[in-house]
Design a protein that fits this description.
It contains eight helices and 17 strands. It is an alpha+beta fold.
């Protein structure tokens, strides 16, 4: 398999920069084997059966993008520089790993002021990342970060417009609970409370798992032989209750349908032993054609970037030829792509 096998031409105008309003009005491409149907998300129960189970990633996106000033006294007097920070994840020593631009303008021990309440000191660097120690922790840190930070929109949206107050709601699922992600599980953005209730009333159950989506989800694949690509790691947890619910659905003949590639990657990590089990840790599972799925029966997901690991994942589930047809149909019918775009519901043959 070559990287070019997962490439396609996407008109720039199909890249969504805002979500559909209301959320449930987004379009839904339903692929059932070779059959493709055009629908909308609010019609999803037409394609679900009582006894099915949707697996939802309940991670909560933090407003991880910060802009601050570094002050320095030099021979030229008092100087300052704008420092842009994207938080990645907390480290065991209490600091935060962060992308810092420009990292070269910040020295170890220097402080960056983000607001009257929030500031951080650079403690060290590694692998092109900075390690920031903040002046606050716990709820005080959360409050200050919510006030000073912006949602970390994907690069293809951030290149078109800055994040704003609308994104604080738009880029968060309605069931987000466990904070720690720096990217949203975007397929789940299409649900609101009313639709979740409609699905439950239809006899479909829900299981919540947690995968803290990292900025590495946007890293490009740089190798031509995709099997040699090294995936980024993300922390996740499948509770004993979640594993039992999924196992019970499989045993009863229901379908397990993760909402989003993050939920899929997590439950397949937890099922590598052949059966789903409670699991917690960092997963770097890489799913590409030839992968042996253990628990996933179908997938709800948005439309993904060309030559991305997520294109490889959907190709593993549906088959490469089928995915080419699905994406050609989506482009011809002008579906909206990527994080704020429309959705697909994929049932393999």
């Amino acid at each position: 398999m070559k990287l070019s096998d997962f490439d396609f031409d996407l008109p720039d105008g199909l890249i969504a920069t805002r979500p559909a309003v209301p959320r449930t009005s987004a379009r839904l491409l339903v692929a059932q084997g070779a059959d493709i149907t055009d629908a909308v998300v609010s019609d999803i129960t037409k394609y679900l059966r009582p006894g099915d189970r949707l697996v939802l990633n309940d991670t909560r996106v933090i407003p991880a993008r910060l802009s601050g000033l570094r002050h320095r006294t030099s021979a030229q007097g008092q100087t300052q520089a704008r420092i842009e920070v994207t938080l990645l994840e907390p480290r065991r020593d209490g600091t935060w790993a962060a992308l810092i631009k420009p990292l070269k303008k910040l020295k170890i021990g220097e402080e960056v002021i983000f607001s009257a309440d929030l500031r951080a000191t650079l403690q060290g660097t590694s692998d092109g990342q900075g390690h920031l120690a903040f002046n606050l922790e716990g709820n005080d840190f959360d409050t200050a970060l919510n006030a000073a930070g912006a949602m970390p929109l994907p690069p293809y949206i951030a290149a078109k417009r800055p994040a704003d107050a609308r994104d604080m709601d738009d880029y968060q699922t309605v069931f987000a609970t466990n904070k720690g992600a720096v990217a949203a599980p975007t397929a789940s953005l299409h649900f609101d409370a009313a639709l979740l209730q409609t699905i439950a009333d239809h006899g479909v159950s829900f299981t919540h798992v947690t995968l803290h989506v990292g900025a590495g989800t946007f890293l490009p694949v740089k190798v031509d032989d995709v099997t040699t690509h090294k995936m980024h790691a993300e922390w996740g947890q499948v509770s004993a209750q979640a594993a039992a619910e999924i196992a019970a659905t499989k045993a009863a003949g229901g379908r397990v349908i993760p909402v989003g590639t993050t939920a899929l990657r997590l439950i397949e990590t937890a099922a590598r032993g052949g059966e789903i089990a409670a699991w917690e840790g960092d997963t770097d599972i890489f799913i590409y054609p030839g992968f042996d799925f253990q628990v996933t029966d179908a997938l709800m997901t948005n439309f993904h970037l060309p030559k991305s690991t997520l294109m490889m994942l959907v190709s593993a589930l549906m088959g490469q030829d089928s995915v080419r047809r699905i994406y050609a149909h989506a482009i011809a019918r002008e579906y909206r792509f990527f994080s704020y775009g429309d959705a697909s519901l994929l049932f393999p043959k």
